[in-house]
């Protein structure tokens, strides 16, 4: 009987961890929405009229200038690059913590959506794209980090793949929304405003989820870290895992702060090369 109860408790904890990983992956869902919605909107007659202010917006062959379209798409990427830059992102990840950073990035995403959906000028739309990019740059880093630190080692790989799955799901949902809304009057605005729903859910919901136990230990809040681990792993594994985290942090501290030059030396250089190559190949095949 005790074995059944223990097995049931382990199942409940596993499901809880899976739910936390899936819920936080809404940050990736927002990324997918932003990737997927912009193309059809640039071809939308109402967008050409309200934002691009084209005189021939009603004509079937009217198009926004290619350079302008490129800037609209690129402003999102510029925001991503800036907020994901290590000197900036590390401040939020280490000082604010994983959970608070997700909430902050989600709030920034909401601001970007509002700016884009209510704009009457191209300049303000570009600002909205940039602000949204700032949000996604942070979310791209912090969501998978939070997932990996919440998950037990045996589930870490499986649960962090939810990030990529939710990006592609977001792209699909954005395509469906565009198909249903874009060609209606002010439909392009509605397609952007709909993104506020998962954004608000992410910001509000993360408040009720636990902090990363590794981050808590990093801040010397070991009692809180142990409390989180007990809820996620059970009492038997919690103490052992906390000891491992503390030992790992101490070992890392011995080597001091990492330097940029270490990225281009030895095995780390090989891993960086593989990571960059995978990202480049992913983009080259159309993702």
From TrEMBL:
Concerning InterPro entries, the annotation shows:
MFS_dom (IPR020846), MFS_sugar_transport-like (IPR005828), MFS_Sugar_Transporters (IPR050360), MFS_trans_sf (IPR036259), Sugar/inositol_transpt (IPR003663), Sugar_transporter_CS (IPR005829)
Q: How does it sit in the membrane?
A: Multi-pass membrane protein
Question: Main location per UniProt?
Answer: membrane
Entry's transmembrane regions: 12-33, 67-88, 100-118, 124-146, 158-182, 188-209
Task: List GO terms (cellular component aspect).
Answer: membrane
Q: Subunit structure, per the record?
A: Homodimer.
Q: What protein name is recorded for this chain? A: Hexose transporter 1
